Amino acid sequence: MNKFWDRFFYFFTFITQGTSFLNPRAYAIMHRMHHAYSDTEKDPHSPHFFKDIWQMTMQTKDIYINYSKFKIEPEKAFQGNYPEWKLLDKISDMWTVRILFAALYVLFYIHFATSWWMFLLLPVHFFMGPFHGAIVNWCGHKYGYSNYSNNDHSKNTLPFDFLMMGELFQNNHHKSPNSINFAKKWYEFDPSYPIIRILNFTRIIHLRK
Ligand SMILES: [Zn+2]
User: How far is the CA of 159 from the centre of ligand 1 (A)?
Assistant: First the structure.
């Protein structure tokens, strides 16, 4: 991406993640660690070291806070250049900003919800990031089938991952981490793949050859 699109998507992420905006640097460090240490004790969020999804999510949160608040530096192998926008990182992490987003969600529901039970979905919207992480990290390394032996417990949870837009093809993704298409077999479909191709076709991103 060029600088313009880099900033555009950084800001777009802030708007769309809202209440649960995740610091991209901290996210990237944890993701690289997850690949390097998949399902070992140094994996930041392997489901195989916790008795339930809540415990795993709480540890993930603690490690995330370490890196997002610069409480500790990552191991040398995971230091380096990460996208950073210090001002936006700061604003997005302010409690007032997170509460403002939450208030906007509530207003949206008041305006558009047609039945009372719809309001039960509000907590999911307040914690979209942790919900997404918990589902992908727990299910993607526990339930489903494997195409490859990656020396870990990564699984493809669904052959058509409409739930997490392809992120649940963990087994394929750990086999070829740099592949933009997480689907590998003829019966698998990764909904994010055509979107990436369109972004490349319209020159918003440039895929490495
Ligand atoms: Zn994984």
Answer: 16
Rounded to the nearest angstrom, the distance between the alpha carbon of 155 and the centre of ligand 1 is 8
- pLDDT tens digits for 150-164? 999 999 999 998 889
DSSP code, position 94:
-
How many angstroms is it from 196 CA to the middle of ligand 1? 20
Tell me the whole-structure pTM to 2 decimals.
Answer: 0.89
Helix, strand, or coil (residue 156): strand
Separation between Cα atoms, residue 184 and residue 199, nearest integer Å: 21
Residue 35 C-alpha to ligand 1 middle, in angstroms? 7
Ligand 1 centroid from CA 74, angstroms: 19
**What's the CA angle centered on 182, arms 178 and 185, to 5 degrees?**
125
The CA distances from residue 113 to 19, 103, 109, 110, in Å, are 20, 15, 5, 6
Residue 77 Cα to ligand 1 midpoint, Å, equals: 18
